[in-house]
Amino acid sequence: MSAVTQDTAVSTGRAMRVLIYLLLVLFALFYLLPLYVMGINSVKPLSEITGGNMMALPQVWTLDPWRSAWSTAQIGVEPTGLKPYFLNSILMVVPAVAISTIVGALNGYVLTKWRFRGDSWVFGLMLFSCFIPFQIVLIPMAVVLGKLGLAGSVPGLVLVHVVYGIGFTTLYFRNYYAAFPTELVRAAQIDGAGFFQIFWRILLPVSGPIAVVSVIWQFTNIWNDFLFGASFGGTSQPMTVALNNLVQSSTGVKEYNVHFAGAILAALPTLFVYIVAGRYFVRGLMAGSVKG
Amino acid sequence: MGFLDIRNVTKSYGQVEVLHRVDIAVEEGEFLVLVGPSGCGKSTLLNMIAGLEGITGGEIAIKGRVVNGVHPSKRNIAMVFQSYALYPNMTVGQNMTFGLEMHGVPKPARDRALADVAKLLQIDHLLDRKPGQLSGGQRQRVAMGRALVRNPDVFLFDEPLSNLDAKLRVDMRTEIKKLHQKLKTTIVYVTHDQIEAMTLSTRIAVMNRGHVQQLGTPKEIYDTPANLFVATFMGSPAMNIIPARVVMQDGVPHASVTDAEGTPRMLRFSQAAMAAWEGKDILLGIRPEAITDPEGADRKSGNIQSLPNRVTVTEPAGADTFVTMTLGGRDAIARMRADAPVAAGERYEFAVNMEKAVAFDPATELRIGG
């Protein structure tokens, strides 16, 4: 193995190699610096931070900032902590990701295996939706949500994110299914399987890798979204908006340790999705390549 | 009325008609092969029988029931695809019984049908494997098993052997023929391989550019091709097409063909009707195996004509030696015995079996002289 790498790599001397690794380690440390600062400052009392020891390890280790950020910190005018907003985000992101992924898969299935007149136009228009900036749709979206009676509610946010995500998920699934042999669909038709049976029994079981891609993409985007959450969240604002309200509050003492803990809390779910689903993603790709 | 009737069927994509009034009646138990070069419409016709493509004009009837507009699953047909189209996520057993399951057949009956077919095709030991774990030949068997398990009225094969290597292809060809003889099923089989067509079929439909050029038994197609296209498409090496002129000698029609030196050589026709073409230019069609060395000539033939000519090239192919010569200004190939005493550049006395020769009108390209 190492012999192979040496053969293909540009040949370097030992000193050069040490230098390269040294640089790489330095860059890695530099890259991890913000995480380090966030981590250690979230477990030290506020007095230590304001005392000017931002980079030092805590003298007194405490989890109080985390508890405060989670359940007692002042968000806006209510001392609720981030807990209810975290719940809002979960209630929003799970159905939004699930619905947009399923609709995207169905769209991809229809656009590749049940071609109709003008299907490439339909796909082109859906693709176009990927390029529309969020800000442009704010006012029309507000009007639509108002008319539907969904303004300021979690279902309203779910609808917004589903509509916005379908363009991307359709693109993913369409391209994935385009490479899926149409003869299989024809064979299933002759076997007597209907539209949904073919989708459920033939296509979905082999859609693992692209479903994971779609879920990662949608989850990250929806969880991290601030603009739609702030605009349409109303009384059920998501985590990002709450975090902003926590950190940007202009009254009282700035509790940096609590802010750091809150920011990490807000980032945890996406990290979790990347670590868990990322593994399945690679596994799915490997399985596919071995099967040929 | 046949078992499978294709009546005046046409197919158009927009303004372009790709199948022109195809008319074929297939009897029960027949093995019909649709053969032709790519783009001739043979796969389109098969897909129309299957119901995967709409019918622009005419009717297709299976067992007397017109199936235009009937869903593929309700036509009681089964199809074997070129890529096998096995469902990758299901085991071999699930693949084969999927159709029965979709048709609401209860599990015990499905298992019984599966066991029977698996035994027939000798794939019982593979039933728990996934298609990805099978070799090409095994996948081919599973694809056929999936069709057999349904016990359909008509089997449709879409170039099923073209993804296999040469040796396996020949084995599976024999296998399919055995299966047909055993089960006496009605089969429509699409291929571009004329040897597959000749060996498997009870009848062949040769297609080109959306027209059925000729419909007949393999022997009819081979010995009396309806036109120049059928003559040259069927057979390997292809039939020699030699420009000739019809002349009368002793009141009998002869083909006058120039040899390598430009000397006219007379070959007597077996067809008396060629007399009507006296003095006219024709195209003479002689299969390579009808031009041999005198010792190798067909002893049962009543019309062996001698043809002295110069040998251009010899190609020993093991079982035969192919000899190229110039006839009527074109290359012609003779199929000789392996040890025929011929050498390039030398003159040789060839024997032409004129009983097997056919003639074509150069203008219409149709066969003439009965």
Automatic annotation (TrEMBL), chain A:
PANTHER family found in the cross-reference section: ABC TRANSPORTER PERMEASE PROTEIN (PTHR43879), GLUCOSE IMPORT SYSTEM PERMEASE PROTEIN GLCU (PTHR43879:SF1)
Topology within the bilayer: Multi-pass membrane protein
Name by which UniProt lists this protein: Carbohydrate ABC transporter permease
GO cellular component terms, semicolon-separated: plasma membrane
InterPro entries per record: MetI-like, MetI-like_sf
Biological process according to GO: transmembrane transport
UniProt main location, coarse: membrane
Residue intervals of the ABC transmembrane type-1 domain: 86-277
Residue intervals passing through the bilayer: 18-37, 85-109, 121-145, 157-177, 198-219, 260-282
Keywords: Membrane, Transmembrane, Transmembrane helix, Transport
SUPFAM superfamilies on file: MetI-like
Compartments it resides in: Cell membrane
Family: Belongs to the binding-protein-dependent transport system permease family.
UniProtKB/TrEMBL annotation, chain B:
Start and end residues of each ABC transporter domain: 4-234
SMART domains: AAA (SM00382)
Annotated Gene3D superfamilies: 2.40.50.100, Nucleic acid-binding proteins, P-loop containing nucleotide triphosphate hydrolases
InterPro entries recorded: AAA+_ATPase, ABC_transporter-like_ATP-bd, ABC_transporter-like_CS, ABC_transpr_MalK-like, ABC_transpr_MalK/UgpC-like, Mo/tungstate-bd_C_term_dom, NA-bd_OB-fold, OB_MalK-like
Superkingdom assignment: Bacteria
Molecular function, one GO term: ATP hydrolysis activity
A GO BP entry: carbohydrate transport
One annotated Gene Ontology cellular component of this protein: ATP-binding cassette (ABC) transporter complex, substrate-binding subunit-containing
A Pfam short name: OB_MalK
Keywords (A to Z) from UniProt: ATP-binding, Nucleotide-binding, Transport
Coiled-coil residues: none
Matches recorded under NCBIfam families: PRK11650.1
Family: Belongs to the ABC transporter superfamily.
Name of the featured protein: sn-glycerol-3-phosphate ABC transporter ATP-binding protein UgpC
Source organism: Paragemmobacter straminiformis
Phylogenetic classification of the source organism: Bacteria, Pseudomonadati, Pseudomonadota, Alphaproteobacteria, Rhodobacterales
